[in-house]
Amino acid sequence: xxxxxxxxxxxxxxxxxKIETAFSFKGTRPTRLLYHRMLILxxxxxxxxxxxxxxxxxxxxxxLAAKGQVILFANDCQxxxxxxxxxxxxWEKAPQSASNCKSVLFDQKASNQTLPIGPCELPDLKNLLxxxxxxxxxxxxxxKADVLAAYLKILMIKIANINYSAQQRYSGYDKDIFLEFQNxxxxxxxxxxxxxxxxxxxxxxxxxxxxxxxxxxxLSPKKLISSKIIEEAKRLLQFSSISxxxxxxxMNFMSNEQFSHFFKKISGMSPQKYRLSVQ
Length: 279
Fold this sequence. Notes:
The chain has eleven helices and nine strands. The chain has helices at residues 88-91, 99-106, 122-136, 144-169, 172-188, 195-202, 206-217, 221-239, 244-250, 256-267, 271-277, and strands spanning 5-6, 14-24, 31-32, 36-50, 53-58, 61-65, 70-73, 78-86, 114-116.
């Protein structure tokens, strides 16, 4: 078992980092967090392990990790966005009225480790992050810590509202169809990559399935199917020794070339290059 690193103190109670270009986590080790952490992801497509849970991350999501949790990013993980770190001591500077937001987001870790950011919520969140980042990096000024704490309060409330909206989306008819769709993908992704097959199986139109998937996950049915195929292909490339040609056959592609083209189109690199990168 790989030894767990302990996150070192930055000497501050609050920090915000803007990740301008896709940052690679290659070579990282599992790390026990000293700070509560929020990653607001503008770009991402990979896996992160928090404690014992493997979590798929993607663009337009908030990734939450609490102090004391152990985090490990996959070697192929690249992200772009904002990273916010803060201590309990800093949070105490925020008005008491916002304390329940921190509890909702960080004390119920398993239920909301990632939260989707809807298209209506995204512009306001980006503007707030931009202002917070700019004020944090200004020279010291009167009551700077209080100003940053107020920003954090607003940000936390907005993210808590995103959490509430996400819970509302996962209800009723939409939730049932979406969960059944995910189950059907798991059972049939090798045999069928056509949205029409899944829509017919669920007794909905392709348009209805598209709208449900957008509301539930912010992704199209086609992307969800492709993500499952890529996830399994990456697992075989990393943890098995079978040839890429055999993997193509296992995944029901007509040829090695078709599989390689599909894999590179979705993941940005060839199967051969991916296998070398994770060895």
